[in-house]
């Protein structure tokens, strides 16, 4: 029956609190800041009729100190505080799909596409072997065609998401090119 958070994601959470005020008896001041950077405190005024609110545009994997101050013109209510830690950024990519495979090319697609990704790197090279080529793909795209490949060869394809935060996450899949035209 106190201030608490629900629906926590990497960039938002919902705050809920007991009904202390009404529209007529006052309003709430809601203050929140990353625990590591109290100077970045933000303050919102919330109508006394509310008992919940979603805070968004938050940083991932960050602990926030939250204080709810009931500004009542009738009674004094002590501030309520809570501490909420946002989740890590969504793991990406979570799926790689290889399609349209021919003797010399195939298409690589991935999901999901996230706003937090700046660019994707697609690394590919024949197995076994250690010659690897890299394609840079814009963070808004979710597929690319890999060309100039050898026929009837297995390739290891790795898609790396490079986040705006500088973090990287990778996922790999194998792809096989088709046999070339051997004049059957």
Automatic annotation (TrEMBL):
Query: What Gene Ontology terms describe where this protein resides (cellular component)?
Result: extracellular region
UniProt cross-references to Gene3D superfamilies, sorted A to Z: Immunoglobulins (2.60.40.10)
What subcellular compartments does it reside in?
Secreted, Extracellular space
The source's domain of life comes to Eukaryota
Q: Does the keyword Transport apply?
A: no
Question: What keywords are annotated for this sequence in UniProt?
Answer: Glycoprotein, Repeat, Secreted, Signal
Q: Name one Pfam family in it.
A: fn3
Major location, coarse class? secreted
Could you list the residue ranges that cross the membrane? none
InterPro entries per the record?
ECM_Regulatory_Proteins, FN3_dom, FN3_sf, Ig-like_fold
| Domain Fibronectin type-III stretches | 1-89, 90-180
* Entry protein name: VWA1 protein
Q: Could you tell me which species this protein originates from?
A: Pomatorhinus ruficollis
What's the source species' lineage? Eukaryota, Metazoa, Chordata, Craniata, Vertebrata
